[in-house]
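The authors assume throughout that readers already know how a fold can be written as discrete tokens. In essence, backbone conformation is discretised, so a fold becomes a row of integers matching the chain in length. A single example would do more here than another paragraph of explanation. For illustration, here is how one protein appears when written out as sequence plus structure tokens:

…
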Amino acid sequence: MNKNQHVTKRPDGNWQILGAGNSKATAITKTQYEAIERAREIAINQKSEVVIHGKDGKIRDKNSYGKDPFPPRG
């Protein structure tokens, strides 16, 4: 099963990578950039998507590394 990887801010100020549906972080980093890079590696390996959340928790960007339809729908 390919799980989307969410990059979110932690209460302690660090950033985490959280697989969709998981309660425990896959990885914890000091910067958002590091978390995005690591989440990207995981998503490429799993052919899934990286969902990047801002400091406020709202989704600010998504990148897909799965089997996207070509041409894209919509």
